[in-house]
Amino acid sequence: MGRNTQRLVVLVLALSVAGFAVAGYLTYVHYNEDALVCTTGGCETVQQSEYSTIAGFPIAILGMLMFASVGALSLLRLRNLRWLSFDTATIFSWLLVFTAILYYCYLTYVELFVLEAICQWCVVSSVITLAILVIESLHVWRILDLSGEDDGSMSASMQDVAHRTK
Q1: What is the tally of structural domains in the chain?
Q2: Helices 60-79 and 86-109, axial angle in degrees (round to 10)
């Protein structure tokens, strides 16, 4: 793994920790019924709405699970393990984050057009997730060699697919 790639993985890890902290705070507030620290005034509306839980559990727990999983995959990529390739861990991470972004799009729609309230913590979590998606997309771009240029870094499996299609 190159130095720049390693730095980006460390950045994903740091963003995952930050996202986990935000989701953890929202989960804590849900279970302790504390008032959210909020400058926009919409946090309480969002946090107390029917959309803030799934089967009685706060959706912030889903955020904690997603950020913990992405962080764990980042740690595994930094360890360079034989049983889990960098590329496989990256694609799993990208899929998790992409799915989360789709869910955030739905939740943002609910905030804007159903509840008519914005939760700053939800926005922060969305921005962190979007930043991770951009970084992971750069890695996936490299893995799949979507640039169209063959600089010799295309993975063996992609070279095999390219060879079979000729």
Answers
A1: 1
A2: 160
Bridge partners (DSSP) listed for residue 58: 53
Cut 0.70: pTM above it = yes
pLDDT tens for 113-132 read 999 999 999 999 999 999 99
Which CATH number characterizes residue 23's domain?
1.20.1440.130
Distances (CA, A) of 78 to 51, 57, 101, 128: 37, 32, 24, 20
Helices 120-144 & 3-32 angle (0-180, nearest 10): 150
Q: What is the domain range of residue 26?
A: 3-164
Residue type, position 89, single letter: A
C-alpha dist (Å) from residue 162 to 90, 119, 151: 21, 47, 14
